[in-house]
Amino acid sequence: MKAFFQHAAMTHGITVRVAVNFLPEQSQPEAGQWFWVYHIRIENDADEPLRLMTRHWRITDGNGGISHVDGEGVVGEQPRLLPGEAHDYVSGCPLPTSHGSMEGFYVLHKDDGTQVEVRIPFFPLAAPATAQ
């Protein structure tokens, strides 16, 4: 399945693209649980290699509740991207409401140890009206 990237942000020559989909089969609205899957592509259009070291997410639910999630790498990896390379991964997000949003940043390291903070674009999480 080819991802249709709905959201993108470029910082320091690194583009982060996001495609997000609601998963009704993983959701239980009657129990107050909604679930989305998101596909991220990180593209290195800079002129030097970079390694993705950490991530920070700000997840907001429909009630205004905010969760911060920090961790090493993405889905257990700390990919190194040469100029012109991209890294794709898929992950998911549960919420206690039928809508919300996500945004954040990655910290990447250059070969000399210099850190670069790269923005993950804001993207909404919205279940279809039939799943409310």
From TrEMBL:
> What NCBIfam families has UniProt attached to this entry?
PRK05461.1 (NF003967)
Q: Which residues form the signal peptide?
A: none
Q: What is the species of this protein?
A: Qipengyuania atrilutea
What Pfam families would the database entry show? DUF525
User: Quick one: which gene encodes this?
Assistant: apaG
The ApaG domain, residue ranges = 8-132
The entry's protein name is Protein ApaG
Task: Write down the Gene3D superfamilies for this protein, in alphabetical order.
Answer: ApaG domain
InterPro entries from the UniProt entry: ApaG-like, ApaG_domain, ApaG_sf, Uncharacterised_ApaG
